[in-house]
Write a structure and sequence with these properties.
The structure is a single chain. This protein is an alpha/beta fold. The protein has a single domain (about 10-160, about 175-210, about 235-265), classed as Rossmann fold (3-Layer(aba) Sandwich), CATH 3.40.50.720. The protein has helices spanning about 20-30, 45-50, 70-80, 115-140, 175-180, 185-195, 215-225, 240-245, and strands spanning about 10-15, 35-40, 60, 85-90, 145-150, 200-210, 255-260. Strands 3-2-1-4-5-6-7 form a seven-stranded parallel β-sheet, with helices on both faces. It is globular. It binds nicotinamide-adenine-dinucleotide. Nicotinamide-adenine-dinucleotide (NAD) binds near residues 64, 94, 123, 127 and 152.
């Protein structure tokens, strides 16, 4: 039961995002072959990949997970290049922004715009399903597969809105769209796990929280006060949990949600 991802073919959606970049790069350092799929591939990151890694070990693909045609094309290209997809990591998602200067506080539940809600559901729910459908067709053809969905603590608990109160008078809240769309992930994970358990495809989720990235002082202070471990997550701390789920060390795990949240959901 190896803990290694060496030689595994790993298809990453949202590969150029904060978490995607960190984990996809780490997987390549460990000898995996990685499909970097994203709506917005970044030239600077691609340049570094070409510098650091063998061309045969990665493939960059433009992908819109909300488009069935785009998903079908990406899966065809990935399997054409690598012959199979061992692991799908569903990392692509949006954390929709709202207009903080709008006359009405749009982040309040009763004011949150329907269009923004629809957009989050389109990407985080429908898009996640569409790309998974396409990859599952390939996993069924090859007779095995492993899916890792990226959830959030807000898939499991409500936001503590005081995290977003910076004492400036106007309180902005974590809006409902993210909670609504991400709370789909744990049960989708259980759905896939049980649907495919007899067909050698397993599915688990990781629920991270608060990955450190250019956060302001007031946010960091609030976070430290509310978090059992008193700090945000360093992005390197996500490597081990992702590697564990992507490797054969977790071979008897399916349908579980691994929290990587410094204890946020423990109290
Ligand atoms: N960063 C955190 O603190 C945190 C905490 C908990 C959960 N998460 C979850 O982790 C995952 C990654 O988050 P992140 O912080 O890296 O976000 P990010 O915004 O940095 O990256 C998301 C990536 O998804 C891509 N994307 C967006 N729409 C797409 C589409 N339609 N098709 C294909 N790609 C698309 C974006 O281009 C981007 O590169 C998300 O599912 C998020 O909900 C993040």
């Amino acid at each position: 039961m190896s803990h290694s991802v060496r030689d595994k073919v790993i298809f990453f959606t949202g590969a150029f995002g904060l978490i995607g970049q960190e984990v996809a790069t780490y997987f390549m350092e460990q000898g995996a072959r990685v499909v970097w799929a994203d709506l917005r591939p970044q030239n600077e990151v691609i340049r570094v990949l070409h510098e650091r890694f063998d061309e045969a070990s990665f493939l960059v693909l433009p992908l819109d997970i909300t488009s069935p045609e785009s998903c079908q094309q990406a899966v065809e290209q990935a399997t054409g290049y690598f012959g199979r997809i061992d692991v799908l990591v569903n990392c692509a998602a949006i954390d929709a922004k709202y207009d903080a200067d709008a006359p009405m506080n749009q982040s309040r539940f009763e004011n949150y715009p329907l269009e923004a809600l629809r957009q989050s559901v389109e990407v985080n729910v429908i898009g996640t399903i569409v790309i998974t459908q396409e990859v599952c067709k390939q996993m069924l053809r090859q007779g095995h597969g492993n899916i890792i969905n990226v959830a959030s603590t807000y898939s499991l608990v409500a936001p503590n809105q005081s995290l977003y109160d910076f004492g400036q008078g106007t309180i902005h809240y974590k809006p409902v769209d993210y909670v609504a769309s991400k709370s789909f992930i744990p049960n989708f994970t259980r759905y896939l796990a049980t649907f495919y358990a007899s067909e050698n495809i397993r599915c688990n989720a990781i629920a991270p929280h608060g990955v450190l990235h250019k956060h302001g002082e007031a946010f960091l202070e609030n976070f430290a006060r509310l978090s059992p471990m008193g700090r945000m997550c360093e992005r390197e701390e996500l490597r081990g949990p992702f590697e564990f789920l992507a490797s054969d060390a977790s071979s008897y795990m399916t349908g579980s949600v691994l929290t990587v949240d410094g204890g946020w959901t423990a109290w």
